[in-house]
Amino acid sequence: MKALAVDLAVSKLTVSAKNEDHVVTAVYDIGMKQSETLLPAIDYVLQKAGLTAKDLEYLALCQGPGSFTGLRLSFAALKAIQIANNIPLYGISTLDVYAEHYKNLPFTILSCIDAKKERFYAKAFLEDKEIFSEDDYTVEKIIELMKEKSSQNVLICGTDAELLHEKIKDELNNFNIYTVKFEVNTTDQLFKILEEKIKKNEPPLNDYDGPVYLRASEAEVKLNN
């Protein structure tokens, strides 16, 4: 498989090119300089993998939830490659990507991203099955869902696992809760899920599909108020 994967759902930018068994990955923890870095990063990993955009068979990205700016940038870049070269583009839930590495463990896997304002984008799995869907949750709602649906052993993953743990641990003090630092190579998980989707003949994104935000932007909120 010849493919390109991008995760720009949070401030860390991860880009990988896969040329059969050869994978080249670049990671940039650059904050607000994503727009200056994304296209050069794509060019870099493609060159190091011995590929051009025309060689690619598949494209994959984290489609959200996550940063409004980062998601827009990654969609714009990969849709340009998609349209120019007629390559299928697959969008994969950011929370699915962050949970994928741990889903074979005998725990409830709680995948999360800090959504600010005492809220988290979150989704949970047990025995590789979704037990509550991704949404923009209050801490109180996450606690309620965990009490209702979770096993006693919980692993929190994602960019803000430790922060969520601090906020729920007192209310869930009878649970065995563990956290993992956000060190997984997310584009490896993007490639893994992409290959599963291809095997299942799942369709790529439509031309009109865009990022999954789960929450209105600040500009939209102000416009509607």
Number of strands: 10
Helix content: 25-40%
Strand order of the largest sheet: 3-2-1-4-5
Helices and strands: which structural class? Answer: alpha/beta
Tally the helices. 7
| Beta-strand share of residues | 25-35%
Instruction: Give the biggest sheet.
Output: 5 strands, mixed
List SSEs in N-to-C order.
EEEHEHEHEEEHEHEHH
General form = elongated
Report the C-alpha radius of gyration, rounded: 18 Å
Mean pLDDT: 94
- What is the straight-line distance between the termini? 48 Å
Protein described:
- With 225 residues, the protein is α/β, with parallel strands linked by helices.
- The chain has seven helices and ten strands.
- The strands form two sheets. A five-stranded mixed beta sheet has the order 3-2-1-4-5, with helices on both faces. The protein has a five-stranded mixed beta sheet with strand order 8-7-6-9-10, with helices on both faces.
- Helix 1 crosses helix 2 (68-85).
- The protein is elongated and about 55 Å long.
